[in-house]
């Protein structure tokens, strides 16, 4: 007689084999290929790439604010 874990593992193995031999496996492969092709056309970026660009933009924004403040000080000196 099977132990509960062995019975579950055997059932899972049988289901995986059944799915692998069924048209569902082909459908899954086709859907994955279709989605990959669609995503490739979208020019998507990874989260890591997005975070790097966001950090760069934040850094540039801070630098622009500093330069604007420096320009404002120089303009005030020029008026005086």
TrEMBL record:
<keyword id="KW-0413">Isomerase</keyword>
<feature type="coiled-coil region">
    <location>
        <begin position="50"/>
        <end position="77"/>
    </location>
</feature>
<keyword id="KW-0963">Cytoplasm</keyword>
<dbReference type="Pfam" id="PF04380">
    <property type="entry name" value="BMFP"/>
</dbReference>
<dbReference type="GO" id="GO:0006744">
    <property type="term" value="P:ubiquinone biosynthetic process"/>
</dbReference>
<protein>
    <recommendedName>
        <fullName>Ubiquinone biosynthesis accessory factor UbiK</fullName>
    </recommendedName>
</protein>
<keyword id="KW-0831">Ubiquinone biosynthesis</keyword>
<dbReference type="InterPro" id="IPR007475">
    <property type="entry name" value="UbiK"/>
</dbReference>
<dbReference type="GO" id="GO:0005737">
    <property type="term" value="C:cytoplasm"/>
</dbReference>
<comment type="function">
    <text>Required for efficient ubiquinone (coenzyme Q) biosynthesis. UbiK is probably an accessory factor of Ubi enzymes and facilitates ubiquinone biosynthesis by acting as an assembly factor, a targeting factor, or both.</text>
</comment>
<comment type="pathway">
    <text>Cofactor biosynthesis; ubiquinone biosynthesis.</text>
</comment>
<keyword id="KW-0175">Coiled coil</keyword>
<comment type="similarity">
    <text>Belongs to the UbiK family.</text>
</comment>
<dbReference type="GO" id="GO:0016853">
    <property type="term" value="F:isomerase activity"/>
</dbReference>
């Amino acid at each position: 007689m099977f132990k509960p874990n062995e019975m579950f593992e055997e059932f899972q193995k049988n289901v995986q084999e059944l799915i692998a031999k069924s048209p569902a496996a082909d459908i899954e492969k086709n859907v994955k290929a279709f989605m990959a092709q669609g995503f490739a056309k979208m020019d998507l970026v990874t989260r890591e790439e997005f975070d790097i660009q966001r950090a760069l933009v934040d850094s540039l924004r801070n630098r622009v604010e500093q330069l604007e403040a420096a320009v404002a000080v120089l303009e005030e000196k020029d008026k005086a």
